[in-house]
């Protein structure tokens, strides 16, 4: 492939950030998204935004939830992992989309190699303007989702997620 053809491929940007969860006392909105904290993304009110969980290493897993699992569930997860290893990896799917992926950390610096994501823990929403009241009270907030949604989609408070436009 020529250099000009490689340079003409679109670059998709994704940003790593800390996800917060909230209850109705904080906001009644399902998602509180501060577009100002994501200048690298082409995100504006009305944009579709996707949250993707970053796979956690065993050092940060919550083993309390796993201790209640039965042996049957443990065996099932081992079977699922074996089936996953046969599937094509995410790198090959990206190469088929003909776009380059640029991963940024919370400060906007390029992350070499990206991060391994958990596509089963993914949530897509429509970006809305953050209220002026919330923006003044929480100027550093990037994104927060309602606890009820976090629970359903497998997100935990203060975990690292990848945010990208759809």
Describe the structure.
With 166 residues, the chain is an alpha/beta fold. It has six helices and seven strands; from the N terminus they run αβββαααββαβαβ. About 20% of the residues have low confidence.
Q: What are the defining features of this structure?
A:
single chain, 166 residues, alpha/beta
Helicity level, as a percent range? 25-40%
Whole-number total of structural domains: 1
Strand content: 25-35%
The stretches of 5 or more residues where confidence is low (pLDDT under 50) are: 64-96
Mean pLDDT: 78
The first-to-last residue Cα distance is 27 Å
Largest sheet: 7 strands, mixed
- Taken from the alpha-carbon principal axes, the silhouette is globular
Number of helices: 6
Instruction: From the alpha carbons, calculate the radius of gyration and give it in angstroms.
Output: 18 Å
Helices and strands, in order, run as HEEEHHHEEHEHE
Number of strands: 7
Structural class: alpha/beta
